[in-house]
Amino acid sequence: MIILNLDRNSQIPLFRQVIDQLKEKIDDETIKPGEVLPPTRVFSSQLGVNRTTIYKAYQELWALGYIESRSGSYSRVRQRRDIMPAGKERESAAMNWAAVVNPSAEKVFRMFGHINYPFSEVESGFNGIDFGQLHPDMRLFPVDEFRKSFDKVIQQQGSSVLDYGDTKGLPALRQYIAGRMRSHSISASEPEILITNGAQNAIDLLMKLLARPGSRVFVESPTYGMIFPTLTYYNCEIVSIPMNNDGVDLEILERELQKGLPIFFYTMPNFHNPTGITTNQEHRERLIALFEKYNVPIIEDAFEEEMKYLGKVSLPIKSMDLHQIVIYLGSFSKILFPGIRLGWIVADKVCIDRLAALKRFDDICTSQPDQAALADFCHKGYYELHVKRIHKIYRKRMQIATQALKSYITNDNIEWKEPNGGFTIWLELKNTNLGYEEINSILLAHNVRVALGKDFFPVPNAKKYFRLAIANLNEKEIETGVRQLADAINEIYNKNN
Amino acid sequence: MIILNLDRNSQIPLFRQVIDQLKEKIDDETIKPGEVLPPTRVFSSQLGVNRTTIYKAYQELWALGYIESRSGSYSRVRQRRDIMPAGKERESAAMNWAAVVNPSAEKVFRMFGHINYPFSEVESGFNGIDFGQLHPDMRLFPVDEFRKSFDKVIQQQGSSVLDYGDTKGLPALRQYIAGRMRSHSISASEPEILITNGAQNAIDLLMKLLARPGSRVFVESPTYGMIFPTLTYYNCEIVSIPMNNDGVDLEILERELQKGLPIFFYTMPNFHNPTGITTNQEHRERLIALFEKYNVPIIEDAFEEEMKYLGKVSLPIKSMDLHQIVIYLGSFSKILFPGIRLGWIVADKVCIDRLAALKRFDDICTSQPDQAALADFCHKGYYELHVKRIHKIYRKRMQIATQALKSYITNDNIEWKEPNGGFTIWLELKNTNLGYEEINSILLAHNVRVALGKDFFPVPNAKKYFRLAIANLNEKEIETGVRQLADAINEIYNKNN
User: Fold this and answer.
1) Measured between beta carbons, which residues in chain B are less than 8 angstroms from residue A312?
2) How confident is the model at residue B497 (pLDDT cuts 50, 70, 90)?
3) Could you give the residue ranges of the DSSP H alpha helices within A69-222?
4) A163 to B108: CB separation less than 8 angstroms, yes or no
5) Chain A nearest C-alpha distance from B452 (Å)
6) Of the candidates B443, B161, B485, B203, which has an alpha carbon nearest to the alpha carbon of residue B330?
7) What does the domain layout of chain B look like in residue ranges?
8) Rounded CA gap, A327 and A348, in Å?
9) Are residues B44 and B4 in contact, defined by beta-carbon separation less than 8 angstroms?
10) Inter-chain residue contact B210 with A353, CB threshold 8 Å
């Protein structure tokens, strides 16, 4: 007979006391594996408790693996397998996970796992002026209008806005994007638009669609650094086409096309990241004609299409895409805010249909309330209003930045070109024999941070560059930052000699 | 001299009139490519308008590619490339996109592109009782509490909640999940948890991490239908292990392990989709011991871990995972609502770190406001409250469903097993020679819809099954639906003979 010591006056419910005491007896082997526990009816009358108390206790013991209890049968103590101990660090695993993962994934982890984009700056505890992040200014986020849109769509649409939605994206949002595209001379109907989890997700989906192992991919050199891990995962051959002052070198581009066709050419015609170059209309026309000739897709990453705050710019390549070879990427991350992860692809419907199938099996659909709130926000006119507002602000910031660079940075070894919009300025540091690490520590010592040029080149480049991004700094910060930068540059060239 | 006909009384601004008329003259070649337009100063005095009017017009014409206009120089009419015509269907593309995409993506599209999950039901215009969708009841979504959490986090955290966030997931949400995992006897610290865009996204990330072309993958047969497209994309060999009444057949499983190790075994121990089977503690212990022996990962898809409304259930396999071989998938989609796309993975930290790198280059991070709102909602206790509330409701619905099945479906050819939780009941239709298409049209004619068994088998199975999901129907609908189902079944067996 099993004797328990139940306290009817305790705060602890009786069934819980039964469980705890039985567990203890099984754990210390007072009751041994194989022993049969009394039937609930018998045990409850022995203990003078309600039969459901015992029933409840047996249920939990069964769930915890202490007893076997087949319905209608007796309960027998099991040889229980241990569960993982709580609250302590795991033992080193028996499985060598690093060997279990596939070589591509492991390569991405080894080469790029240290990138904690977009957090590296925050984590380092750096406290100075940060020109390093290509990031819209949080102080300008239209938080309140967006909050109201969220509230409104959930109030008005209720449950339906929290349900699964169309993989291609919320129709109301795609409709708004189609209109916005028209304002950039791009004609796109809703079936030609796919909403993605930001532009990064668009690039991954396109690789998933187009890449084969060993595929050639053409990128501008320098280019967006976060595309390299993706190209690496898909085992592509990265072919880098140098940028000239007016955009990618079209002659080298054609020579590379003749050597072997790529699955696509990835280009940023507006306010190119990192160089800030915007190509002119003629360059764009020659570019698209070239890819039409070779019948190869162009990915036009137009992440800053809206940042034409100086007005005078060219048409998107996609607007001239009579042969449907251009895949256009748009994003809200650099205009509104990046935390909602919303971007889009405009492409031929045949291409969009296949991308949508891949996306469906990737994540079914993009967040519905995010899309609904954004659609409401946009349809109310707040998006356009916000673009106008930030145009003024960023135009002024860019003016301050370029004036400060002209005033303070007088060293002839520094070359840069005035961008006609966007967020970035690209500086070349001529005639320095210092390495990036040394340069960077001098910059940090002067309380200023930049994005180092090396991160934008697919293959190491002997020249030294850095990228200044001015979006996330106000006028005073820019002015101060450029002064500090000028001091740092002087030190760099002093050390140089 | 260029003569324009400007109307100063028109609603249309003067610069717009200038643009339109110049465009017309260039389009009809009154002004020919190569011709030089008058300087802004000259043209404005000729027309008697402000100089900025002409400047503005030239700017837009340049942007539209009508003129070349290098700064400080004259404006010359260009031979303009056409832009895509707006508002009409695209010409058939010069590029054969279906041939451009890689074979895996094309295969997924050809085999599974017709699946418009989760919308096929809605689109077909079906109006009867739908047992087909494994979908939580929208009428039970805690909409208002969630809306308030959204509002609160945006008000309190402001811009920061709309910024990029940690790829692994919002710390506050991971912290809540860690606690919730403890309540299921799983000990997991925050670095062992990765937030994903729902469980589907978790599966895709895991394939991205583990798959190599030709990798063997073990799945239960039948299993979750939406895993097949993903396995197909990654060119895996799908090895299907039959389900017995108490879970997957462990002997066949070991035989298959001996034939060749898979990259993982995908299993749903609770309320298995589609069979509804929950394995007992002993089966789970034997299962994990087997995979420890062969040192092969298990993916435990616990999408309905919380649906233990009958109480008596086993421990998660992950809770006994002393060797860190189990990858556990959780989801909010079946408990709260699916539209916010939030799920999670619990696994060895080495594994999570690599998954996080892949996720970073997939989409940087999951929606920040969605995570923040959910974390707030959960920390306030609404999640647990909601689980308790729906336990009562779904328990009742399942009782109604099983009682109705017992009462109305008296045909001996129909076999089914009472589930002990979850949302689904799996029926076998013995001795029928009708095809699924015929069966389905009889069901639809009786205004009732089910999920057809064929969609859950990796390889065609001669037996006929269907799955009833009862989550999305209230008690009355379930009762009515089962009556209609009974009539349909009678007709099926009448036709059969």
Assistant:
1) 59, 62-63
2) low
3) 97-100, 103-112, 120-124, 143-157, 171-183, 198-210
4) no
5) 20
6) B203
7) 14-77, 124-136+385-496, 141-382
8) 8
9) no
10) no
CATH number of A162-380: 3.40.640.10
Residue B348 at interface with chain A, using a CB cutoff of 8 Å: yes
Min Cα separation A479/chain B (Å): 24
Q: Does domain A14-77 have CATH number 1.10.10.10?
A: yes
In this structure, the number of other CB atoms found within 10 A of the CB of residue A54 comes to 26
Structure tokens at B488: 């349909």
Strand order in the sheet with B451-452: B414-416, B424-429, B464-469, B451-452
Spacing of C-alpha A451 from chain mean position: 18
Mean pLDDT of A20-49: 90
Residue A316 near residue A335 (C-beta atoms within 8 A):
no
Token digits for B128?
């009867």
Extract the tokens encoding B10: 């028109």
How high does pLDDT run on average in chain A? 92
User: How does B469-494 read in b/e, with b if 16+ C-beta sit within 10 Å?
Assistant: bbbbbbeebbbbbbbbbbbbbbebbe
Interface list for A 197-226 with B (CB within 8 A): 197-198, 200-201, 204, 208-212, 226
**Confidence grade of residue A99 (pLDDT, cut at 50, 70, 90):** confident
Cβ atoms of residues B328 and A84 within 8 Å = no
Alpha carbon A64 to its chain centroid, in Å, reads 40
**Cβ–Cβ under 8 Å, residues B278 and B310:** no
Q: How far apart are CA A6 and CA A21, in angstroms?
A: 9
Average pLDDT (A444-461) is 93
User: Which of B489, B446, B449 is closest to B472 using CA atoms?
Assistant: B449
Instruction: For chain A, say whether B465 makes contact (Cβ under 8 Å).
Output: no
Among the four given CATH numbers 2.30.40.10, 2.30.30.30, 3.40.640.10, 3.30.565.10, the one describing domain B141-382: 3.40.640.10
Across A255-266, average pLDDT: 98
B contacts of A370 (beta carbons < 8 Å): 367, 369-370
Q: Do A101 and B68 touch (CB under 8 A)?
A: no
Average pLDDT of the segment spanning B367-391 = 96
DSSP-derived pairing of the beta strands A264-267 and A298-301: parallel
Fold of A120-136+385-496: Aspartate Aminotransferase, domain 1 (3.90.1150)
The reply to whether residue A324 touches residue B204, judged by beta carbons under 8 angstroms, is no
Q: How far apart are CA A415 and CA A481, in angstroms?
A: 18
Cβ neighbours, 10 Å, residue B107: 16
pTM of the entire predicted model = 0.91
Residue B221 has pLDDT above 90, yes or no: yes
Give B240-279 pLDDT, tens digit per residue.
Answer: 999 999 999 999 999 999 999 999 999 999 999 999 999 9
ipTM field = 0.91
Interface contact A459, partner B, CB < 8 A: no
